[in-house]
Amino acid sequence: MAAATSIKLDDTLKGRVQHLAEARRRSSHWIMREAIAQYVEREEKREAFRRDAIEAWEEYQRTGMHLTFEEADAWLAKLEAGEDAELPNCHV
């Protein structure tokens, strides 16, 4: 179920949305809904990435377990070359 909401746009942005809607043969409403949905999805992914990075940093600070750049780079190079390489073991 969808709920109505309102948004205030300056005339320039409103015109740009309308122009794009006409070019895409969509309604302005559809363009705005799609833009908001894409923005929210992108920002949710960015927030999840940020949380994962913080958790990884906190885990590293607790345990000291890590891979060096060289180890990670060599592993990624194998994957890029199509090899079925296992992730190296982390160490202190």
From TrEMBL:
SUPFAM superfamilies: Ribbon-helix-helix. Keywords: Plasmid. This is CopG family transcriptional regulator. It comes from the Bacteria. Residues 5-43 form the Ribbon-helix-helix protein CopG domain. It comes from Sphingobium yanoikuyae (Sphingomonas yanoikuyae). CDD domains: RHH_CopAso-like (cd22233). It holds the Pfam family RHH_1. One of its GO terms (biological process) is regulation of DNA-templated transcription.
